[in-house]
Amino acid sequence: MPQGQPLQVPDDGLSTKARRNAPLFAVHTGDGKGKSTAAFGMALRAWNAGLRVAVFQFVKSAKWKVGEEAVFHRLAALHDEHGVGAPVEWHKMGSGWSWSRKPGTEADHAAAAADGWAEVARRLAAQQHDFYVLDEFTYPLGWGWVEVAEVVEVLTARPGKQHVVITGRRAPQPLMDAADLVTEMTKVKHPMDAGRKGQKGIEW
User: Fold this and answer.
1) Minimal CA–CA distance to 46: which of 124, 131, 128, 110?
2) 29, 35 contact by CB (below 8 A)
3) What is the 3 state secondary structure string of 151-186?
4) Residues 6+ apart with CB under 8 A from 4
5) Euclidean distance between CA atoms 7 and 18, whole angstroms
6) Are residues 170 and 142 in contact, defined by beta-carbon separation less than 8 angstroms?
7) Which UniProt keywords apply (predicted)?
């Protein structure tokens, strides 16, 4: 794709502007590091462009401190106080979604994941946000907690211009088939292979 030009332009009657403004569905998968980091980088661009951002973390505990979360909370405050950027919401499944606190036992996780997806689907139908990050969402899909076919149907039929990025290993094939952009992170080398530990500012 030299100089940002597509290799081919489909004969679909759409204008250049329409193609430029088409909603994007992206999947970041693979065993390598950087899937969520890349999604949050895209969310940062979206915020700067004035797009309403919502992050849903489907696996990480509510107690797990994520550096990007603190940054986006500050960006949300910056928007509220000075009108720059756009609104930001950040929700973790962990011990219960922010709108519906539930016990965090193992038996509740499947129900919590389904509850989280139902809320995402509701917000998509209402066009509540412009940019969604469904972080580590491939795991509830792989565990059968949320139906892949339903997710594909909702995402492909979402109204308006809503961008969605899903992260996590082993993304189901139907999800990748439906996506506009699929990136597979491949590990070539990792410091933990040599016994090093995760570091503040690098892993979180």
Assistant:
1) 131
2) yes
3) HHHHHHCCCCCCEEEEECCCCCHHHHHHCCEEEECC
4) none
5) 17
6) yes
7) Transferase
